[in-house]
Design goal:
Structural class: mainly alpha
Order of helices and strands: HHHHH
Number of strands: 0
Strand content: under 5%
Radius of gyration: 13 Å
Largest sheet: none
Shape: globular
Distance between the termini: 38 Å
Helix content: 55-70%
Number of helices: 5
Length: 96
């Protein structure tokens, strides 16, 4: 059986986090991040997301993934900024 990037809900290390983020940038498909984000969310995160959902300001799965990876020490703030910008650019390119 061939291993895929999305097999486990755990992010092993920085390289794994980068591969997952880059896969989303390539495909613009955030759905594979669902089990990973769900596994990483704490009760505090869930409460904050609930409050954000009420105000319709909830971050998408990709943004949640980046924040959670930064909080876990897997990605730096600079990594997250660059990956976030790359995602926005990929969406713009696809829309054009």
């Amino acid at each position: 059986m061939t291993a895929t990037l999305m097999e486990s809900p755990a992010v092993a290390d920085r390289a794994h986090a980068l591969r997952l983020a880059q896969q989303v940038i390539r495909t613009l498909d955030q759905k594979p991040l669902e089990p990973i984000v769900a596994a990483m969310l704490t009760d505090g995160h869930k409460a904050a997301l609930s409050a954000m959902a009420v105000s319709r300001d909830e971050p998408n799965l990709y943004e949640q993934f980046l924040v959670l990876c930064e909080e876990a020490g897997l990605l730096s703030e600079e990594d997250c900024d660059q990956l976030g910008d790359a995602y926005v650019e990929a969406r713009r390119a696809r829309a054009a």
